[in-house]
Fold each of these.
Amino acid sequence: MIWTTSAPAITAAFLSSLVEAVEALTIVLAVATVRGWRPAATGAFAGLALLVLMVFALGPLLDRIPLRLLQFVIGVLLLLFGMRWLRKAILRAAGIIALHDEAVAFAAETEELRDQARRHDVRLDWLAGLASFKAVVLEGLEVVFIVIAVGAGRGLIGAASLGAFVACLVVVALGLVIHRPLARVPENTLKFAVGVMLSAFGIFWTGEGLGVPWPGEDVAITAFAALFLMVALAAVALSRRARA
Amino acid sequence: MTTLTTVFQMVIGLFVDDGSLALAIILIVLLSSIVANLMPDMPLATGAILLLGCLGVLFSNVMKAASDSHSKSMKQADD
């Protein structure tokens, strides 16, 4: 395993999983608060099982695609995905769009579930489980993409999955201990970091797919990440100044 | 059918949030591919277009969003 490639891959999977797990935990906690742990846990585990199945099904399938084509396609998708995250993180850091608030999300979800309880009391366990399942699948889908994208073609799917899994364990453990949404997690800073890393991976892989022999090979990813970080920080500073 | 549409929208939503950013990235990738095919003996030129193009696209997109937000808040203040 080459450390210069595996370290950013594992870190990107870990950080993105951390962000998405915090968001999923908020919904699962809301479900548990309104209807108890049984439907919340059942829905969450069913969602996790589906996500793991997707990684195991798609990972080996991707190994059959020619490497250059795989690098190009995944590189372009990483660029679209990573720059989308980075753009949003920059706009949030600059105060142009509102920060994601876990406490508000928790209150909204709890209210919606209570409203559903008033309307369909009999089916509520099923609906609550479904809400928990949906939250885990929707938030986890982005993590699955990142794990596959940074891991495929280099035999790093296992390592990236491990990074994502450890992040989930950390968030679940914290959630069980404090029993409320993890509102203090610096979500936007994490998204900023993941956006920078994924954009750097996107440039590297798209270039490799087009036959670009990057100077320094894998080390170039770190240089691209530094460039994206500089441009993003400059954009935050200038956007703040434009707003003032 | 509705579920299929929702799943499709969800998958597209993973990659496209601001349409103009996605379109600009695709255009940069297309330009890089054209350069890679026209000048196969200068692969670093392809890399430079790809890297600088994406950095430029990100920066200009964010600055445009900041400027739009500023104009909008100025207009609301005038109203």
Amino acid sequence: MTWATGLLAPDQPWAPLLVATPLAAALAAVPFGRRAPLLLVALTPFSGALAVLAIAQVWSHGEIVYHVGGWPPPLGITLRIDGLSAVFIATTALVATGVALFSLPKYGRQSKGETRAAFAFWPLLFAMWAGLNAVFVSNDLFNLYVALELLTLTAVALVALDGKPKTIAAAIRYLLFALTGSLAYLLGVIFLYGVFGSLDISALAISASPHAVVLAAGVVMTTGLLAKTALFPLHGWLPPAHSGAPAPASAMLSALVVKASFFIILRLWFTALPMAASAAFLQLLASLGAVAIVFGSVLALRQNKLKLIVAYSTVAQLGYLFLMFPLAGGGNEMQSWAASAWTGGVFQALAHATAKAAMFLAVGAMIEAAGEDRLDRLTGIAHGVPVAVFAFGLASLSLMGLPPSGGFIAKYLLLTSALASGQWWWAAVMIAGGLLAAAYLFRPLSRALAEADPKLFTPVPRLQQFIPLALAALSVLLGIFSAQPYALLQIGRVPGASEGLP
Amino acid sequence: MTSALLFAFSGVAVIAIGLFGLIGRWRIERRVIAFNLVGSGMFLLFGAVAARRAGVDADPVPQAMIITGIVVAFSATALFVALIERLVAETGRSTLPEDTPDEDA
Amino acid sequence: MTPVLFDAGLCVLILGVALASVIVREAFAAIAFFIVYGLLVAIAWTRLDAVDVALAEVAIGAGLTGALFVGAMSRIAQAAEAQAAPRRHPERLAVVGALLLCGGAGAALIFTVLQLPEVAVSLASLAEANLALTGVTNKVTAVLINFRGYDTLLESVVLLVALIGVWSATPDRFWGGPPGLQLAMTQDSVLGFFGAILPPVGFVVGAYLIWIGSSAPGGAFQGGTVWAAMLLLAVLAGLIDPPLVSKRSLRFGLVLGPALFLAIGIAGIFRGSFLGLDPPIAKTLTLAIEVGLAVSIAATLALLVIGKPRRAA
């Protein structure tokens, strides 16, 4: 079919359209906020089609490069889609669509005139989506800075949406951390420009050398990005912010926004400056990740409010992501376990994104039914919102790392890489993390499944229960159908081993 | 020592001064001023570093980036200030509560 | 006086004022020092041959930010008066520790700056070479609207998002009301006088800045900020009421700039590339984008300084 090959040609503008489409929706939502459902109906097929086209384009042509305005670097800004971008773009499309549909009952119907929250929610959500895609397709470090600021402001505004004093304080703390992170990132960008005269990631990949300034710039940028990704010890802002935000916003934040800064860290150390990464630095990153796993899980065990449990779980699960650095990088690129570690880490990000989004939305439905999220008020909630509780349980499979979920595949890949490379201590941490996750997720689940009178709970629309189920199912499907995503992820990797462990 | 280098050092010094203002346990509204100083110092550093590289002709790309940065910094400051005002209106204090999020069972 | 000596003196002033704005006790004094700092930095930008940046710094960095702070501080002081927080004097040791930390960071940064290679290669020549295709002669405008227009597009959305965030920080009961405080101002006062005379003049100055931005320092941000300042002046003088946040035409005005930019960008796809400006019509397109942006920037910046709705409709 020649028209199909034409659609997938490397010069097709799917990359910029991936950003332009949600941007257009965000701009339209400002004057036309009351037509939000209509906007969503228009947006969803477009964004879905674009995501599919982008994946197909990468699958058939490999890495796609697009010069915005026709200006090649270093003068202009370049967009790049490789396997890594493609999977993140797809996950974003799925999660954001789910979140938007979930939010229709609460923010979509404005019968009594416009309300403040309904006005603000849609432009912020769509702008966040645009910012996420902008991060995933960008190949320019300053462009990434602007996209990060867009993400930060939309995220902070969404956290503060319900207006309670504790939530406002949480939003301010988030803003403090995020702005400091942005400034640290900018400092690194300044030095990289000072050395290379270009901020194009591909150009840096070619000309970068293990110069002291380059390493210093990389470390400073990473520190800033770690603050945005809430890696221990810079995680303090996350639990209050993600638990204080409205449920759909929490889903976007935990699932996607923290992954965007992580994505940039990956780009930095695996594409732009791989030779500058010292083994000690990578071990340090992974060590912080290991501490995050244990620390976050233990704190999750101590919480009495469900949203806080889920938020601390995010802190813990993000720790797994950093275990991939010493396993897949730092001179390991050609080893047979590098591909497994790389894929395992990214799978963890994707599985966590879908599972955590499902979890927060399910918790949102539970709060609608019970009125609040304190554990003792949620006894027997399974009789009120059975589908939502089932979704919560299904998502827990992925977080615990049980087969056949995506989380299982991710942890399996990371585990085998750790053992194959002789860094067995990471394997021990992962096993401990899995056990702890089972513990802190079992507590609310067992409570939810207890006996209770269904009439105690407010009925919740079907839509709001089935969306988390769909997302949780996705996290399981990722595990079952993992071969294609695995192959997709290898496209565009800086030359290294692409065959994984059996 | 060229002018550009002088301004680069000044930029660094302003960053350090702003950092000092951030760390000190000031109220949040003073921290916002400190944030702006750090950002402004960084832009100055950027411009000076770029000027050092450029020689005779001024390099327009960093200048455009700095203008973008100034606008973005203002946007963040405005949001910051609005949130602080709301916090003060609700709680009467302009310091973040130091207690942990799970203070009530 | 040699140029370097002048610059050295300027730097000393800049550092002194910056330090003062951090150390001084009273909030209003800190803001005053901060505004002066902004003005001095603008002079530094002209010394670095970055006049567009100087204009942006003095207008946004010093002027609007200062106005924002002054308005905020007065409201925060009003509210915080009710609860007298105990004055916390930081311990000697903590201050010394902070000084050492910041001094160390500064030293590390200076060391890094000195490590930078002394290469005299920049993008200026590349920009110069492609300038003819952009239809403008101001290189910074070419970068902002043409070469790296994508950044500017995103940035204009960042501004809008900030405004939405500011508006949504208002309590529910005030939603729909006019932004800002109610001012009682008579026409006879000094502010009323200048509020009547200056805005028309400022409007022309702003329009000129936008127009001239294609060949001399200026452009959408600089001109748009002057417009914003005139809007603010008129509102402060009580001559115009800030529009209700729910007003449709206001919302269209806010999205006009980014929407026009985005539309031109998408149209560019059919002629070659997203945000590609066809060289024959590049100058017209650039001007159109800049005017659109300036309108939205003016409205957004003014509303950001005015703040969120503080009384019911």
